Amino acid sequence: MTSITRNLPPFVRDLGVSIVGEKCYVSLVENLAFGDTECLKTALSKGMGWGIVIGSGVMKLPQLYIIYKRKSARGISTSGSAFETLAYAVNLTYAYRNGIPFSTYGENAFLTAQNAILMLLLIQYAPRPRALTSSTDSRTTKLLGTLLIMIVGFLLLLFVPPPILATFQALTLPISIASKVPQIIENHRNKSTGNLSWFAVLLQTAGCGARIYTIYREVDDVLVALGALLAFVLNAIIGVQMWLYWGRDPVVHKVKVEEKQEPLLARSEKAFVERTPPHSRAGTPSLSRPGTPLSASRSGRNWSRKVD
C-alpha cells in the first residue's frame, strides 16, 4: 500500500503538504503511520478549518434568499448585522496582515462579503412609515451611503498602522456582543425569530465551535481565541431561541393611545347644544320672529295679548 501512497502525482503531494505540512504528510500518507497522534490532531484541525472555510461560502445564502423572496427583513436586527459585519472585517484584515494561516480565518472573507449584501437587503426591505412608502429617494440615499461607508471602512482597515489594527481586534470582543445581543433581545421580545435562517444559525454555531479547536491547535493569539469562544456562546444562545420559538409568529405589542382632550371652546359649545331645547336647535322651526325677545317668543298667547 505504501508503494502507491509514496508515488502519488506531484500535484496531490503538493496539495497534501500545503495542508498538513511535509512532516505529517510523510507520516500519515506515505508511511500510513496512523498511530502518530500529533499529526492526526494536526490533520483533524486542518480538515475542520478548511471545512469551515468552504461551508462559510454558503452560510448566509439561505438568509439572503429568504429576505429577497419575502421582500421583508422582519425579525432581523439591522444594528446587530452592522456590528457583525464590522467584526468580520476586522478579523479578516487582522489575520491577513499578521500572516495567520488562511484555514484558521478564511471564513471571515466569505462572511464579510455576504454580510455586506445582507446589510443592503436589510435597508432595502426594512419596514417604513406609510408616509414614506411611495418615495424611493431616502431608500436610495441610504443604500449608496451604506455601500460607500463599507468600502471606505475596509480600505482603512487594510492600511491603518498595526498597533491601531491590534486595538480594533481587541475591540471585536465588545463588538461581537453588540452584534448578537440586539438580535437576542429582539427574538425574546417578539417570542419569534422572524425571518432568521435556521441553516445559517446552525452552521454558524457549529463553525464557531470547530473554530475554537483549530485556533487552539494552530494560532497562539489570545485575542483570536477569545473572539471565537465569545462568538460560539452568543450563536448558541440564538440557536436555543430558534428551537424555543420555532414556528411562532411574532407577538403583536399593543400601543396604548391616549384619548385626545377636546379644546375648552369645543367642550363649551357641545355643552350648550346639549342644554338647548330641541325646538330651538338648527333645522327645527322656531315660533319667534327675528328681533323678538326670548321671553316673548316662548308663548304665542302672551304675544297676541300685548298686541290687543
From TrEMBL:
Which superkingdom?
Answer: Eukaryota
Q: What UniProt keywords are attached to this protein's entry?
A: Membrane, Repeat, Transmembrane, Transmembrane helix, Transport
Name where it's found.
Membrane
Example GO CC term: the record gives: membrane
Composition-biased stretches (Polar residues):
283-302
Under the heading Pfam families, the entry gives: PQ-loop
Membrane keyword on record:
yes
Transmembrane parts of this sequence: 147-175, 196-216, 222-246
Residue segments, region Disordered: 268-308
Q: How does it sit in the membrane?
A: Multi-pass membrane protein
UniProt biased composition (Basic and acidic residues) = 268-277
InterPro entries attached to this UniProt entry: MannP-dilichol_defect-1 (IPR016817), PQ-loop_rpt (IPR006603)
Location, primary (coarse class):
membrane
Q: Which family does it belong to?
A: Belongs to the MPDU1 (TC 2.A.43.3) family.
Q: What is this protein called?
A: Mannose-P-dolichol utilization defect 1 protein homolog
